[in-house]
Amino acid sequence: MSQRRLSNFPRYIILQIQRYTLGADWAPIKLEVNLDIPEQLDLTPLRATGPQDGENLVPEEDEKPTTSADQNGPPSIDEAALSQLMDMGFSMNGSKRALTAVGGSDLQAAMTWVFEHNMDPDFNDPLPEADSAATAAASSNDGVDEGVVMSLVESLGCFTIDQVRAALKETNGAADRAADWLFSHMDDIDSAIAALQNKESSASTSASHAVPLEDGEGKYTMTGMVSHIGKQTGSGHYVAHIKRDNKWVIFNDEKVALSESPPFAHAYMYLFQRNDTVGSPSPNY
Questions:
Q1: In whole angstroms, what is the distance from residue 259 CA to residue 255 CA?
Q2: What is the per-residue pLDDT for 209?
Q3: Dist. CA 101–CA 120, nearest whole Å
Q4: Are the beta carbons of 161 and 153 closer than 8 angstroms?
Q5: pLDDT grade, residue 1 (50/70/90)?
Q6: Are the C-beta atoms of residues 20 and 233 closer than 8 Å to each other?
Q7: Rounded distance between C-alpha atoms, residue 69 and residue 8, angstroms
Q8: Which of 45, 152, 205, 254 is 20 to 30 A from 173 in CA distance terms?
Q9: pTM of this prediction exceeds 0.70
Q10: Residue 278: what are its φ and ψ, rounded to 5°?
Q11: Mind listing the pLDDT tens digit for each residue in 213-227?
């Protein structure tokens, strides 16, 4: 039996409720289920204290072996299917992940994949660049494939090796995007590359002074929620409720008013704030 614990208690915690499913006809339907969501949470029993007697840490997963599909690159994504998934309320990145996983165009299979994976920690993260693996396999110290550098220098004919290398680094090794970047900055290429170098230097400095993770007592109070008004997934709209001065306020487009009956039982997303941070903004933000 495995279990998960929290190494720290962040300032905010967001809970997302799965309120979509597929009907018998594979059409998405809304789940009208009332949940008992408390306004106060005590997560202190979930704090991690390290391995206990008789417990073994789960080993890190090995990298997946490269398959023929990986070598051929990801499938092209059907724009119509992507639009339909996004119309259902899913993020662009999550919708792209779903379509990529099922071949690029099968909407029904993508919806099934979404309902199975939308709680994955990387569900809403951007997809990696298609050629990132190839780039990493034969790259220089700055992560740029020197073969691509020389190929672009020869094919474009009007940029230096250093200029092409800088453009590839800025575009994560994507040759077509690097060429676009070079031509779009052609009028003042040296200044543009200098700006990239300054940005890289600033990013390096910021990384060396990373903000430590916040921590505190694991007790939280609900301060916000998002709910959906409408019977179907393709109609209606979302509204937000925010707790201000111990009163709930509804934000419905341009209308803002005190809420007499906040939808605690059927919201889609809940926001909790750690009690010891209320009224004390983080100095690190």
A1: 11
A2: 59
A3: 14
A4: yes
A5: low
A6: yes
A7: 39
A8: 205
A9: no
A10: -65, 125
A11: 889 999 999 999 999
